[in-house]
Amino acid sequence: MRMTSLSIMWAATLKLVLRSTDAGRHWSDVTPTNTPTRSAPSPNPQPVLFAVDDSAAWVAYGAFIGGPYVIFRTTNGGASWLAAAAPLQRGGIAALYFVDRTNGWATASLGAAAGSEGIAILRTVNGGASWSFIAQTNDPSTTQSSPSGLSFNCDKGIATFATSTVGVIPIECAGGAATLYRTIDAGFHWKVISLVQLDARGGTAALANSPTFLTTSDAILQASSYLAANQATWSLLVTHDAGASWLDFLVPGRGAIDFESSTSGWLLGSPIEVTSDAGSTWRALSVPAPPFEPTDMQLQYLGKGIATAWSEFAAFRTDDGAVTWRAITPPQLS
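Structure (tokenized):
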């Protein structure tokens, strides 16, 4: 689910693309149906949708591993869609990410095994009309490294970008050092950035799926350190130089975090916490308990007390700073 303005919202399920023009009160089915290449696609294991504004969005269909798959694009709010075949006939699109209507990337999963994962990065410079294969992890059956700098070793998050050239990919290495990949040439080559501040906490470090870029230089990335099975320290990594270096701030507890600016954000926990100094300090909101379990939900915070929380089964929105929440679950889910 994604809010692109105060009134426009997008949502995706395994089979549907939905859009609301009245802040989630009503939903319209805008699933691509007018293109022959979409004949009975095999759904991904999760919806793959990205909306960059009220009118422009992309959605990927195809088998998770094995392809082929197709990436649809719309620039008129889903009234019509155009399709482009991706340049890989194996793997499956795990995520789409655009910084504007022109420049975008797809992270494709090539399969995982025992704490390792193969991925490929696809790029478009024409809004998804065509895609190019630009980077891939090395072949684990050989000792040869990948020219891209991406390694098959360790699990990985998705590629997210600050600009048309600078992006990052979180890395999850069981028992290994905390690191992430960073590119400054649009994703063709990646270098490892060390997150020694997470290692200094002791235990096993873990990163969230991907960072959220707030500006071309500011981003947040949730993290945790596990000393034992039930002993976790929750923190928030913050960068002000587009991922070249990161600060590590402790947060009050578990829950999704989203910022509406480089300094102001919410933590959807019990209770809901807010920060106005980029995550350095937090205070609890004095509001009633929401009609859902906060730590089970994802979060998008637009500021001025407006936020959306959702899971696989339900969605809620507040317009008054979490004092009240109303259900916005699309009826098509039933």
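The chain has two domains: 1-153, 251-334. The CA atoms of residues 170 and 180 lie 4 Å apart.
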